[in-house]
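Section: Multi-chain targets

For targets with more than one molecule, the full set of components is provided together so that the structure can be written out for the assembly as a whole rather than chain by chain. Components appear in the order listed by the source. The example entry contains two components.
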Amino acid sequence: MPYEYQFRRELCWYIQVCNKARTDECYPGCIRYMEMDYLMQTSGIPRNKQYAIKLTPSVEDVHSFEFLQSIKEDIVNFVRNGESLYLYSENFGNGKTSWALKLLQKYFDEVWCGNGFKSRGVFIHVPTFLTKIREGISKKDVEFEELKERLLYVDLVVWDDIAATRLTDFDHSNLLTYIDTRKLKGLSNIYTGNLNEQQMVEALGNRLKSRVWNDSVIVQLLGEDRRGT
Amino acid sequence: MVELQILNKVLKEGNLSLIVSNGLTADYFINYKEEFEYILNHYNRYGNVPDKETFLSKFQDFSLIDVTESDRYLIETISEEYLYYKSVPVVNKIAELLKTDANSAVEYMLSKIPELTSSRLIEGVDLVKDAKLRFQAYKDRSTKPETSVIRTGFAELDEILFGWEMGEELVTIVGRTNQGKSWLLLEFLKSAWKQNKRVGLYSGEMSANKIGFRFDSLMNHFSNTNLVRGIDEPEYEDFINWLSSRENSFIVVTQKELGGRATVSKINSLIEKYELDIFGIDQYSLMADERCSKGDPLRLQLAHITEDLFKTSTRYRIPILGLVQANRSGAKYKDEEGTPELEHVKESDDITHNSSRVLSMRQTGAGLELSIKKNREGRVGDTLTYFWDIDRGQFKYIPVHGDAVHGQKVEQVKKEFKDGADVF
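Its structure, encoded as tokens over all components, is:
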């Protein structure tokens, strides 16, 4: 479905803190709601993941969290400088994806004003993305085609779960094309995954590993799975 | 006789200025066509008017006479004779058509009037002697702007365009299908109506009632969906009562009222009948070209229509706003590509050439993006963004970094939201 604006007061990201909430100015013409809604809905972040969740670090991740917090506080410059981040952990459920989303959402929070309804960031779950590309050979999905085009120009892309599955040559070539193009254009990327440097070489090959690992700030999370706790 | 007088004067004075500066052609010289063409050809070939001897050696029966009449007399007389000569077949055809169909006769007559009235004495404007008239126009613009422009209704757009000029103003609005071009045109016209202007609109597709419901939504922000479906809208009846009591008209004509597609002549009639101050056309491609010959491509027909509409604007001193569709290559979906460009105007070149201004529009996010692609009066390339609740006919300016007027308002907007907490 193409983007269609809908005002839903109860789903506003700022309802708890906005000085205009519960006043006459909380209405469909609210500039912040309109701009944020466009950024969020065109980013590919599922609706239930669009809201910030509180993240508490394990003892061993306190420093990493502090470092990620510092990136978040300076996210506009991070993106403007075309920097990239590889956030990985050999464990699952300790906040990699949540952090990546948090950074993307914070970026939206910083740039909505004066944006003028332009897509600025995209969230991609890489295994799903690659499957859809393979499916796209036989059937065209207009919305997905638009998303692929967006990958080539938006300021920031989150590549979630990169190399979580074995890549075929076709997958590899696709991923390399998108990431290479973005690097050439000086655009910013956040990758999340479970692989260390050596494992990444084996999974992605030297060339792709070089783009993802060598060109990124590396942050490792060591905490255990905290889902459901 | 006057033809003979003019040719004698040209031969005697040895220059063609009387002919050239008044736009006389061989058609004006019904009895001396060959002599006229000989003089012109001689001039083109040798760079001078033939002398009497050369001329008489070719036309031995030509009468050389003394001419003491003024140029003005000669030109007015030949123009009047020429008009008579051109009018006779038109009047005869009208008489013929009247025998069977008065409507066709009147339509034919109206279509020929511009052609007949164009053969008049050419007189220029003296920028020096008429300077005071110009100064008066300048004063009027500062003290009574409502007499020289109609505001667009969008304050930010007015900052760039000043408003629609009263005359020599054909504004073309381009957008792809289903982007809300008709709504935007109606919003411009509604704003003119609110400035107490008399408004006309030709709608090639929609019924007058549908346009009426849209007008009501734009005026008072009633839900258009509710109006169209007959769902209760509080205060609608009060609004209608108020509206009915207003003096200035908003005239809508469709193919139903016109008995077919609109022509420029029909539009001229409406402008005269209702003394309209502004006219909207939805859209050029749903008009009929009166100058069309069999086999003329659509491009040429639209060129004729827009050229004639510009003349209408000049003649009646009113702005005309018309819609045109962007072609497929102008069908932009991606937000980085912006509004359609001039080359995307369907059957492009002549329409944009004949327009004094071209605005390009598209829907984006929750809003409307409006770009100025041609502006005879000023700068081009500016873009403005508006929140647009189509159903309730509401527009609200959204400051965007680097936009045409209020990019600097961006920070001001941000400060309005005092959260005091980091949400993410």
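Residues 71-229 of chain A form a domain with the Rossmann fold fold (CATH 3.40.50.300).
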